[in-house]
User: Fold this.
Amino acid sequence: DVHIEMQYCGVCHTDLHYAKNDLGSTQYPIIPGHELAGICVGVGAKVTKFKKGDKVGVGCFVDSCRECANCAKGDEQYCAKGCTLTYQSAPPNKHGRAKGGPGFENNPTAGGYSTQFVVHELYAIKIPNDYPLEMAGPLMCAAITMYDPLKYFGAVQGTRA
Assistant:
């Protein structure tokens, strides 16, 4: 796992919908935020992609089954068994790996408006050292949301609808 000290978290309109319970499924108390940007302050023994001091981002989900065809080809967002959202996934959080610390194991997942965050390296994105950390959060949501369909449908420079 990668331990992140949170520095910034963007505000997405989805965060506001959850905070106001517009979707009718919010579990209070809620810690929203899925545009995370912070600094790695520790890593587990098996982590290979990150080291202490790296800039790290996390998007809208933090776990998947890691076994279905979609997960096997790197499309965890389309996990056949569903992915665990960065915040508001109820225990046991579908796959049982994303959970709170001692005393909080039965709470929904907590998002980026927290001070610390722990996530498996598979669901974290290394932010380049020369990229301003304060600008990285929105890339974890809006930019990825647009990139995925463009890539899927083969859009390249000069492509028009």
Summary: The chain has a mean pLDDT of 89. The longest strand covers residues 2-9. Strands lie at 2-9, 36-43, 55-58, 61-63, 84-85, 116-119, 124-127. Helices lie at 13-19, 69-72, 142-152.
